[in-house]
Amino acid sequence: MTAVPTVTTVTTPLAPGPARPRRRQLRAALLVLPAVIPVAIVVIGGVGATLLQSLGLMPLVGAAELSTAAFDDTDELLTSALLSLSIAVVSTAIAAVVGFFTAVLIISGNWGGRIVTVLSAAAVTVPHLVGAATVGLLLSDSGVLARLFGISPDAWPALVAGPTWFAVIAEYAWKESAFIALIIVGTLATRITSYDEAAAVLGAHRSARLRLVLFPLAAPSLLVASAIAFAYTLGSYEVAWMLGATYPEPLSVMALRLFNTASLTARPEAAAIGVITVVLTAAVVGAAMLGLRRMRAWR
Amino acid sequence: MTLSTSNVDMERAQREQRERRMPGDAGRPLSQSRGVMRTARIVSTVLVALWFALPFLPLVLWSFANSWSAPDVLPMSVGTDGLTAAIANGAVAAFGDSLLLSLIVAAIATPVGAMAARALSRHGLPFGRLVSVLLFSPVLLPPFAAVLGINVVLLRAWVPPEIGVILVLVVVAIPYTTFSMLVAYAAYDDGFDEAARTLGATSRFALWRIHLPLIAPALARSAFLAFLVGWSDYLVTLVVGGGQLVTLPLIIASSASGIGNESSVAVLSLSAVIPPLILLGLVSRARNLNPGRQS
């Protein structure tokens, strides 16, 4: 055992001073590297390679040649992008509303809140693919709901693989509402009750407390969680592939179909869809971050 | 004898004191609902509970249905045909592969995320903001877009598909482990480590006997999140794994795309739902039992 243990963590970040140890910086960098290296490989390498493929610079065979041919089919790409965006917007909106009210029920902390806590936590752990399988069993024309209500398969609306994308939206809304509720509860559970009670003592009515206390306090985490849910929904594959109509295709489904076809021109097209999805996601997340900044400035 | 009566008297006195109210005092917390609002709250609780519970219903009903033709409200005969079909589809091996993959992902992503969070929670990391943006980016990245690109890179670098799947899933899990540990470190008191070092403990001793036990509940939560990433994945295993790795979601997808497999799909799905639920129970219990927990 060393005779004099070194105590290094005395300097505060506000007053670095001349004695600020370089060793500490080095140690922090070494600690963070095992996470940074794989993430950089997969994120920068993956997106970079997708971009190169979409521009024809990384062909499976033949010489690399710069071209934007993969982006040429604008009608098809626009249809898919609008479909993907609509699914993501509708399901995220439902998830945000349900998630917020679920969080309010959980935070209220009575017996109903406890039941909802357990059920929503269970929904968070379900893999999306399993969610898709079970929503299919629930909503298809000979599904469990049709049987419970005694409606014949002919009279049951085409919820699965139909033109409304009902089952796909329902699955995303179900899973993501549980996720959003969990995030809101996780960030606010301890803080929110005291503010709520203080407002109640001061005579605030129930709806006023919801509007002026609970919602503003939950809004930043609601926004962040919704942005994450939106990004996930936009880029997710298995649910739309399993429960969606065959045409038109969302971006991810079209990309994977092109990726798996034997045609050599299809690879750049699949990559181009990947690039478009990355750009769309970045735009939406960027807008959400700007909104968050404004929210913080306002507070 | 006298002791017990005085106890009873004490209880009654306390109860009476609790029930004694000022005029206009409803005797309940102000934020608790009454009257119409109470009914509204009960109705909305039931609706939300139904919303989360309903998708579990087909799994339970179909898992034990040997035959269940369309108009009937409940299965006609109950049995284990679904289980037999699921096992015939390779459910046991797939379950094992899924479990192994998720545990490996958790075993790598948890310490890596904890170390990164430790570095980020101390000021003095160069480019700290850039690093946290990079580490958070996999959450927002569309998986298929990254997978299409990284697949080619990994193939050209001759990385075995199993290693590739683990690498990509660890990267997907790192944001969750890093940020859950960042929350834990925000509430962590360095004084414990410093006290141990001042009292002559080596840094290794302080890490194993002081630091790790204190953050153990947070590590368990973070490992659970990483486990979920591996357990839930379909696309990465499918594309990067290239058929070398057949996990539970892959078998569920192939069964679900066939017709008439309902009970087998339900059994497979149920077996994919139960392990995370058991882990969730263990993790939340571990947090409650730990005496040295933060916050």
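Chain A has one domain: 69-298.
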